[in-house]
């Protein structure tokens, strides 16, 4: 039987178990550079036994940062420190993944512990916030400019170049962030995409930017390495992107070299009312996995070993991603292994602490 501690092969990448670190913004960079915070933060999860250690949303261009302090990969100079982090993660037997991101209309905003909404230009914000349509996320957010086709092509190329740098830095898994109301999701959802050209209107047009970006990334990302796409399976809003469209998109992405769909939800519509509880997004993963015939990752309020194990054993997902619980307990996978009565990937330095 497949369990939480069964290995997973994705292309030529071997994951030692089914536990991944969900991407989590740290808002701790200057000019997009990773630093010691990221090394210790991400490195700690590799020590703690996770199989996949994913970076936070990593901006493919400077105006695509959520805040002035986001991690970035738009410059070759970003590669060196990221390479150190990926190297350390791999030395611990985990796999380093990077989430490629562009914040679209949710760019140039304050980091959470400094408030919310747009950050003033005097405080490091920027004027060139872009989106599929000139529709702000919320009244206190930036007014985005509508991207023209040249701008769209530039961003597709920026994703490709970023993927090349992630490869140079030694990452072995990439995830395209197409969720949470950021740029790719803004193209997908009719609530944020009011375009009348080839990139707006019917489903085939709204998914175009996502597919072009996936194709561009896949053209440089090696065959041997997996590519994931994180989507918001629903906007939780009438008239918004929904689960049926998610299944359809997942089927298309499978044929464009995407190996797994990371199934999140929400983030696009300010007024959306999410129904949140333990494992609340798992049904999205289960449905997409079954009906699109693609591997999935489940995420969202997965906190218990037995809960995570059941998700994998029941075939509701191929991988579970944990966010906040791993911030609380970076060694959660080691503790989960003990609860489930399996050895667990204890680092030799910690063997004397192993629970028996
Ligand atoms: C501090 C923090 C930062 C986050 N940053 C990102 C991000 O960069 N990219 C992303 O896709 N999701 C981000 N998320 C969402 C998480 O990846 C995850 O989907 C969400 O927290 C639900 O999982 P959890 O209940 O295990 O925390 C963030 C969540 C937290 C708590």
General description of the model:
32% of the residues lie in helices and 16% in strands. It is of the alpha/beta class. It has a single domain (8-353), classed as Alpha-Beta Barrel (TIM Barrel). Strands 3-4-6-9-10-11-12-13 form an eight-stranded parallel beta barrel, surrounded by seven helices. Strands 1-2 form a two-stranded antiparallel sheet. The protein has a two-stranded parallel ribbon with strand order 7-8. Helix 9 links the parallel strand 12 and strand 13. The structure holds flavin mononucleotide. Flavin mononucleotide binds at residues 22-25, 56-57, 99, 177, 179-180, 230, 264, 299-302, 322-325.
Features:
two-stranded antiparallel sheet; binds flavin mononucleotide; 356 residues; eight-stranded parallel barrel; globular; alpha/beta; TIM Barrel
List the helices and strands and how they pair.
Layout (H helix, E strand, L loop, with lengths): L7 E3 L2 E3 L3 E3 L14 H12 L4 E8 L11 E2 L6 H13 L3 E7 L28 E2 L13 E2 L2 H20 L4 E6 L4 H6 L14 H4 L1 H13 L6 E6 L10 H12 L5 E5 L17 H11 L2 E5 L5 H9 L5 E4 L1 H5 L3 H9 L16
Parallel strand pairs: 3-4, 3-13, 4-5, 4-6, 6-9, 7-8, 9-10, 10-11, 11-12, 12-13
Antiparallel strand pairs: 1-2
Helix pairs in contact: 1-2, 3-6, 7-8
The structure holds flavin mononucleotide.
């Amino acid at each position: 039987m497949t369990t939480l501690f069964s290995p997973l092969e994705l292309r030529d990448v071997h994951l030692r178990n089914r536990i991944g670190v969900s991407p989590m913004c740290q808002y701790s960079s200057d000019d997009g550079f990773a630093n010691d915070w990221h090394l210790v933060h991400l490195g700690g999860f590799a020590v703690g036994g996770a199989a996949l250690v994913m970076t936070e949303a990593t901006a493919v261009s400077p105006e695509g940062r959520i805040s002035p302090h986001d991690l970035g990969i738009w410059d070759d100079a970003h590669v060196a420190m990221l390479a150190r982090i990926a190297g350390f993660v791999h030395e611990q037997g985990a796999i380093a993944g990077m989430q490629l991101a562009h914040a679209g209309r949710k760019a140039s905003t304050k980091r959470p512990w400094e408030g919310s909404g747009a950050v003033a230009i005097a405080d490091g914000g920027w004027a060139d916030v872009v989106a599929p349509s000139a529709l702000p996320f919320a009244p206190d957010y930036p007014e985005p400019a509508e991207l023209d086709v040249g701008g769209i092509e530039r961003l597709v190329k920026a994703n490709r170049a970023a993927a090349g740098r992630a490869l140079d830095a030694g990452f072995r898994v990439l995830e395209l962030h197409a969720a949470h109301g950021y740029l790719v999701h803004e193209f997908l959802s009719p609530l944020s995409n009011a375009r009348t050209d080839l990139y707006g209107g019917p489903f085939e047009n709204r998914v175009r930017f996502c597919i072009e970006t996936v194709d561009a990334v896949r053209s440089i990302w090696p065959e041997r390495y997996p590519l994931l796409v994180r989507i918001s399976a629903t906007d939780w809003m009438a008239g918004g992107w929904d689960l049926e469209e998610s299944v359809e998109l997942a089927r298309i992405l499978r044929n464009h070299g995407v190996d797994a769909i990371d199934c999140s939800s929400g983030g696009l519509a300010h007024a959306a009312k999410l129904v949140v509880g333990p494992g609340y997004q798992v049904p999205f993963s289960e449905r997409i996995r079954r009906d699109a015939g693609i591997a999935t990752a489940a995420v969202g309020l997965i906190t218990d070993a037995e809960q995570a194990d059941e998700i994998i054993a029941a075939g509701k997902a191929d991988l579970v991603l944990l966010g906040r619980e791993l911030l609380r307990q970076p060694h959660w996978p080691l503790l989960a292994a003990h609860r489930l009565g399996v050895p667990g990937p204890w680092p030799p330095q910690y063997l004397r602490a192993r629970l028996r």
